[in-house]
Amino acid sequence: MYQASIAIFPLCAAVIPWGILCGSLSIQAGLTPLQAQSMSLFVFAGAAQLAGVSLIGVASAPLPILSSTFIIGSRHLLYSAVYHSPSLYP
Question: For 51-69, how does the pLDDT look when each residue is reduced to its tens digit (9 = 90+)?
Fold first, then answer.
């Protein structure tokens, strides 16, 4: 258990400032703390979170918000396709 805590520390060091950034931007855009936490739970890509919160802050329509977060988040589909490639395994 101790080794796992030490191994995850570099990720925590990067995630904590990102959470503060996204949370403060979400509150500034007019989201409630529960809405900001829900967005962090359901939107995987951090760049998509920032784009979505920015669009929400300027009272954009739902379709541009959903489409932009989908396009930004779709890069993870490409990542998974590359890592799933059989050529990576001997």
Answer: 999 999 999 999 999 999 9
Yes or no: say if 72 and 44 are a contact pair by the CB < 8 Å rule.
no
CA dihedral 30, 48, 15, 38 (to 10 degrees): 50
Specify the pTM: 0.72
Q: How far apart are CA 66 and CA 15, in angstroms?
A: 24
Q: How far apart are CA 39 and CA 31, in angstroms?
A: 10
Q: Measured between alpha carbons, how far is 68 from 54 in angstroms, rounded to an integer?
A: 11
The percent of the chain in helix, strand and coil, each rounded to the nearest 5, is: 80, 0, 20
Tokens of 28: 């500034």
